Amino acid sequence: MLVFHPAVATKMTHLQAGLSVETLEKAKVELKENPETLHQDIQEVRDMIITRPDIGFLRTDDAFILRFLRARKFNHFEAFRLLAQYFEYRQQNLDMFKNLKATDPGIKQALKDGFPGVLSNLDRYGRKILVLFAANWDQSR
């Protein structure tokens, strides 16, 4: 599939469907995302899973792995490391994730209360900073 824009003509995969031309260009420039090698990039991360048989990787679909590649600017090793840490943490804290659902009234209320928040400034690596406003959270609810 080709997306045409006066300034940009970009080949797009189904994993990039729904992204604006501006977002696709930003992903290409800032994250080094290349639609020509996207499936190969994902497969390289997926292939590393066998190196960690101690972790139960519950999701290994393309869209899920792509999130970790984007978070680590398509550095395969760093993306895998983050993916492994994510599932390792979930595995070590099963009780915390057992009934965690975005539709849960408590979760919805926490989000309404301003928990969590994102700072407008980035850290020294250009990443967003997540802040938890615990003082705004009414624990009596």
From TrEMBL:
GO terms for cellular component: clathrin-coated vesicle; endosome; membrane; trans-Golgi network. InterPro entries: CRAL/TRIO_N_dom (IPR011074), CRAL/TRIO_N_dom_sf (IPR036273). It holds the Pfam family CRAL_TRIO_N. GO terms for biological process: lysosome organization. GO terms for molecular function: phosphatidylinositol bisphosphate binding. Residues 61-86 form the CRAL/TRIO N-terminal domain. Keywords: Lipid-binding, Membrane. The keyword 4Fe-4S does not apply. Its main location: membrane. PANTHER family: ALPHA-TOCOPHEROL TRANSFER PROTEIN-RELATED (PTHR10174), CLAVESIN-2 (PTHR10174:SF73). The gene is LOC104952970. Transmembrane segments: none annotated. Signal peptide: none annotated. It is a peripheral membrane protein. SMART domains: CRAL_TRIO_N (SM01100). It is found in: Endomembrane system. The keyword Membrane applies. SUPFAM superfamilies: CRAL/TRIO N-terminal domain (SSF46938). This is Clavesin-2-like.
